[in-house]
Predict the structure.
Amino acid sequence: MDCTLFIPYLLPPCELAEALWRTVDAPQLKAMLARAAYTTDAAVDSGAWLCRTFGIARQHDWPLAPLLAAHEGLSAQSGYWLSATPVHLETRRNALVLNDALVRDITNDESAAFALTLADHLREENIALHAPRPGVWFLRCDAAPAMSTTSLATAAGRDVRPFLPQGKDGARWHRILTEIQMLLHSHPLNDVRESRGLAPVNSVWLWGGGTLPAPSPKAFDTVWSDDATVRALAHHDGCRTEPQPKRISTAALNGAAQFFSFAALEPLMRRGDVQSWGNAVMTLNRDWFAPLADALKSGALHSLTLISASDAGTQQFIIRHHDHLKIWRKNKYLQ
């Protein structure tokens, strides 16, 4: 049986790795990584790696929006779709910084009211807005624009200006974004939010544009995840999906190919909470990596693939049944 674990920010950025790694008591994880076959790709982020793994080809963007829309129950078989995530943009010195975390408390009523205002305006541009649930919005138009976007994860916490839509049709979408921001800025619900000490919803972030791709051959027997993107990709490919378990179990290792994803480490690292990140890695070592190391040694598990993804790219570690015997192998990343 083969097992893949997709864990964004399992490894810290290279500039922090040596100091942080010493503080983490995770002997089984460290031993597996040190003896694994290792590759890295600075050009591939989380969304790109997931699309490739589930057999989804790149269009102008990696087309996650139509997959997510279909997973939300929308009819995404035709047209071009963009994720339009409501966000808060804040001015910091000479930067306009995207903070999506500040508006994750948006209510059903707020989401419906904001979406109604924007939908009325966007209709004049022949763009339909769909808001299946709070914080999850999509735009649909008939023709695909000549435009590429940047993922929400990459833009979050940064000056957004270098990450705005690019391409022949980029200028039109910059104008549309500006109009959206003006409508949200003057929306009375944002005054109410600010009076309650909440951040206003003052923009949307456009990402993941494309048309719905054809399903690919099933990549895994079972996908265990609570992440919407992973579950949408799995559903599109016809994989069985299950909630992410808190710890590995014998039952979860049944089948030829299993996929697990963990989203908890990324927000900790993004906000610089390295102590909580280290504690979470040690918990993963106890509940996951120690049992998986035993399964590899016993032969119950043939191979384990660990994927750590960040803005700097992806690192892939493949550990096979007999690799625990290769005590001479040292991974350059971990030195």
Q: What stands out?
A: The radius of gyration is 21 Å. The longest helix spans residues 274-298.
